[in-house]
């Protein structure tokens, strides 16, 4: 029978956090795919740099939020809960970016490979992930 020390071994804990965060990242990316008007992976396959930048920023942002959540919570359930709360805030930030730019449609510009908009989207996702992460209790 496995003792409790096995489950608290740093290698086992790291593998556990890694597995859970990868699963959460996949779920998050599916939800982002629903929120955006373009198909992330189809556009990336076509070479759309703006979509790659925006998607990369989302991935980095989500991972950064979960990094803070792992650092601050000893319970897996709390870590996942705070991580997803941070993800919801990232979605809100993306929608706010769209709302605050009435002169153009962010999703349409990214779909058209407007790299400037893709880069700003990347920066917003990554930058706000630090703010969200720092505020996780």
From TrEMBL:
It comes from the Bacteria. GO terms for cellular component: plasma membrane. InterPro entries: DUF350 (IPR007140). It is a multi-pass membrane protein. Its main location: membrane. The keyword Iron-sulfur does not apply. Keywords: Cell membrane, Membrane, Transmembrane, Transmembrane helix. It is found in: Cell membrane. The chain crosses the membrane at residues 15-35, 47-67, 79-97, 117-136. Belongs to the UPF0719 family. This is Putative membrane protein. It comes from Ureibacillus xyleni.
